[in-house]
Amino acid sequence: MATPVIMPKQGQSVESCIITKWHKSVGDKVNVGDVLFSYETDKASFEEEAKVEGTMLAMFFEEGDDVECLLNVCVIGEEGEDFAQFDPNGESSSAQEEQETPKEEAKTPTEQTAPLAQPAETSDFVKISPRARNLAQRSGADIRYAQPTGPNGRIIERDIEAVISAGKMVTPAAMQEYAGMGSVVEGTGIGGRVTTADLSKAQVPAQGASLQPALDVPEYEEVRLSNIRKIIAKSMHASLANSAQLTLNSSFDATEILGYRRKLKEKAESLGLPNITLNDIIIYVVSRALVRHREINSHFLGESMKLFNTAHIGVACDTPRGLMVPTLFGADKRSLADIAVQSKALTSACKDGSISPDLLTGGTFTITNLGTLGVETFTPVLNPPQSGILGVGGLVERTKDGVPYKAMGLSLTFDHRALDGADAARFLQDVVNSLENFSLTLAM
Amino acid sequence: MPKSLFIDPDEVRKSGFVKFKDIPVNQYSKSIEEEKENFATEDFIRIYRDMAIIREFESMLLDIKTKGEYNGIAYNNPGPAHLSIGQEASAVGQAYLLDKNDCIFGSHRSHGEILAKGLSCIEKLDDDTLYDVMKNYMGGRILGIVEDKQKSVKEIAIDFLIYGALSEIFARETGFNKGLGGSMHAFFTDFGIYPNNAIVGGSATIAMGGALYKKVNQKDGVVISNIGDGSLGCGPVWEALNMASMDQFTQLWEEGYKGGLPIIFNFFNNFYGMGGQTLGETMGYQVLARVGAGINPDQMHSERVDGNNPLAVIDAMRRKIEIIKQNKGPVLMDTIVYRVTGHSPSDASSYRTKEEIDKWIENDVLNEYSHKLIGAKVADEGKFEEIRERVRELITKTVKLAIDDNISPRMDITKAPDAIESLMFSNQKVEKMQEGTPNVLMPLEENPRVQQIARKVRFAFDEKGKPVSKNRVYQLRDGLFEAIIHRFYTDPTLVAYGEDNRDWGGAFAVYRGLTESLPYHRFFNSPISEAAIVGSAVGYAMSGGRALVELMYCDFIGRAGDEVFNQLSKWQSMSAGVLKMPVVLRVSIGSKYGAQHSQDWTSMIAHIPGLKCVFPVTPYDAKGLMNAALAGTDPVVFFESQRIYDVGEQFHEGGVPEGYYEIPIGEPDIKREGSDVTILTIGATLYRAVEAADILKEKYGLSAEVIDARSIVPFNYEKVIESVKKTGKIVIASDAVERGSHIRDLASNIAELAFDYLDAPPVCVGARNWITPAYELEADFFPQADWIIDAIHQKIMPLPNHVPKNNFTEVEQIRRQKFGV
What we know:
heterodimer; A: alpha+beta; Dihydrolipoamide Transferase; Chloramphenicol Acetyltransferase; 3 domains; 6-stranded mixed sheet; 4-stranded antiparallel sheet; 30% helix; globular; B: alpha/beta; Rossmann fold; 5-stranded parallel sheet; 21 strands; 38% helix
């Protein structure tokens, strides 16, 4: 099977890269890990290694060419295989798909399944007041969703405010990328600023973490995206410019877990159990739900997705040095008591700065808890390439049929490129049910 | 109007005749022999020297204009040169008896007058005073250029005078007014030379104000208005003649101030107003001196004098100064002269014959005078030749200095960007323009109006928030009164006048109570002469006093157009800061009185550089801004609205303070805070904006921020921009007709300054581009609360379920502009 090799996108602001050297020629045998070509951006140089073995069938660019990111650069396969469909200069090139207008994307059926309003009809000239435009840029609102209510079809401030409250947002990518990393990155830029190169360095996976459990099942299964998933991914991506994250809010009746925790508190010492927090209970429940909903326990990689069979949960942690997200590896395999011990160890290691860098990467999903700070619901920001993050809010008083009870807010941000709203909603529902019926969950 | 004057029908209905006295025409006939008792030899010679200096000075300018060189020195002078070659005898004759306390005001053709007056002053001043004058002028800069230790102080002073005047004409920074006045505006007040004026007859009203200053403040000296025969075609000149001759000076003013104004209206009658021949073509008086007979019973002591003979002019001046000293002014002189050169160098003299010019050249004033002196053996021709030679050297040397860019640079606006900017306003605070005790008739606390105001409630609402009744509430007119009477009891030079000011108390009762406190000479009724009212205030202020004058209706600004637009506004900067202009011009915008009595012309005032312009509409603002205006040194056009003289203070917490306070000119005021839309108003439109804000809140849940401009020039945009940053939306409204109005200027600046914050273009709501209709139709003409809301709905942000009544659409806007309506 012929496999195209794309020009990787080295950071959100990188539009294209220059091929500096070809290490293979057409007809050469290629093994996994062979360097195919070297390339560079204005800031750094990189080497692209082969991920499949075979024969170099075609090379679409020459040394010195400035190649748009994500375009096919070469094709590896078996001799004689047809590679014409991968030629970016050919008719069905991905470059052209990239340039599809939002209007056309809006016509794709998958878009209609998304819980979003249709983008407003756009023409070449958008009438929008300077103030409205500024607000859109500042907030990340997607002006294509604005319904103009100003005179003569002008989009005015209130129209952007409506877009914002409908959640039609475009988040500045770099900011999101940085915020979602969950680890402190040493800046090497001017005045200690963090550059995209710093970000990409920090994303290199760590090896040999001591807490990483030995696993006898393969850690993940890489599946090729179906065409429909690719289209959805691309259109969602393009429609929200740089990302496709959105947040679902829900809440659950905390009566059962509060009761459970009260019981634990009374008996913990006599049973030799650690102090188990509500957050530990949530980690426990979520880790079990994640392996039932692999599409959200995943990394979205553009051309492919990693669906994890185990849940490595990032536990967002507020430290004096800022937000850190240590990873609780294999949470779905751990007992509640173990989760409590490990999460406590990770948190205190982060707080005193002794955390191993290896424990700050490798998460498949993140849980962040602002409940202790009095937040009820919020919009967590994805930790790429993870496809989901769950925000946990504080306890609030509610009544059901006149009976007061304590509820807790859950906010799930997910990457719409990786999964659809209904998938995410089902996962969230599963989490809610598991928490509301925690005793049953324990039995499973 | 005063009750002391009785219009007796028996008296005014009597039959009889108006009798005139003979008006002397060229009656001087003395010989040099006879004059030897009045003039020493050196006096006769000095008169010739002064005439020769003027002749050479102007011949030099003519050469430079027509040949591009003088005495071998090449120079190009693009500026004007209105020469008086042939008229020198009259200038020197007039100045001969005058000293620095006598003030002359001139015309566009006054080089000769300023040189003659300066030379006369130099002759009379002692060396120490003279040297001090030169040393102190512009930091001694001119003295530094002309000072020569070999020379006497008087010789240096002559060099100083010629150089200062010529550098001014050549627009050099070393000129008397840094080159900002130029040929038609050169002057030097330390020698009693006040501004010349490029507007024909412009000096008549201003000089009359100078004379008023001398009279009111009991200063020595006479004031002379030097204007031409052509200026008798100008209304303001007649206004000045009349106002200077008011009966009240002799009949109503108090002892010590009684008597006519110390002014000579001198007409240098050269028989042409540019090319229009005043004798036989454009005038009907035939002999200009006749005019004096129509003005007052003294016939203005009018006389025709032969200005071609310096001794005849000196003789006349001696007699006229005596009349002034006896408090019997004003005086009119018809001083006949002839300019042998054109109106300006571009004049081809197509309106007169060569024979006529040649005949006058034959009678050249310098030759005629020197021949007479030679005949009377005062001096021989060699003496006059020697004088002419020395004068030529003097002028040649001065030209070299004045055109040397190193010695006499022009203003460098690149190096000093604020060189002119810093002269547009003097921006000083001066409690009293001169030391002294103000002349008042009673202690302030005994003034009946002051006592009445003391009983009033100084805020519009009582503790329960209910409006205080009109009779009990402290009104806007009370705020103005408090500020004005405060300044009258502080500054002894302050005078106020205008139509119906005294007794009546002003048509809108602002001045009610002033009559009781102030003597006539500080507070009086003027004739219905708007040009003279404003022009005289200009002269009064540039002489050293402070004036508060009033035009009853804003619409009457037209009658004082030149005086407001060219005189009041310009003299501080054209004098390079030598003159101050502490004049407050009250202008009241009418209501209910139709097309010629209801116009807001703030925009016209704002357009003219050099005028400050305010329009307070609450009692607190009125008092604070009037205090600031009356304590300042700049001309302030103070707009008021007849809609709201009786309004109480509705905004300022605690009401109007009893004590003295100032509101800085130029600061708008947020009358009501809000967050959704800004409404900026000029004038009484504020109250309709507040009404609109109420409706916006009640019907549409919108919070409007209402800002009152208060000042138009200067204007600090900061508050407005901050507001627009907050709201993103602004309506600018005023009662002025929309086209070309200042609200358009505000809108344009706001659009530029806050573009990125705007949610819609700034929207202007002005009056329609029509005549003001009758009161009953005013709601269709002046902006109303619903206009503001309709404009917001149609141009900024459609309001839910709002049905507009007025058409603010773009189509309508284009249509109106297309048809000029």
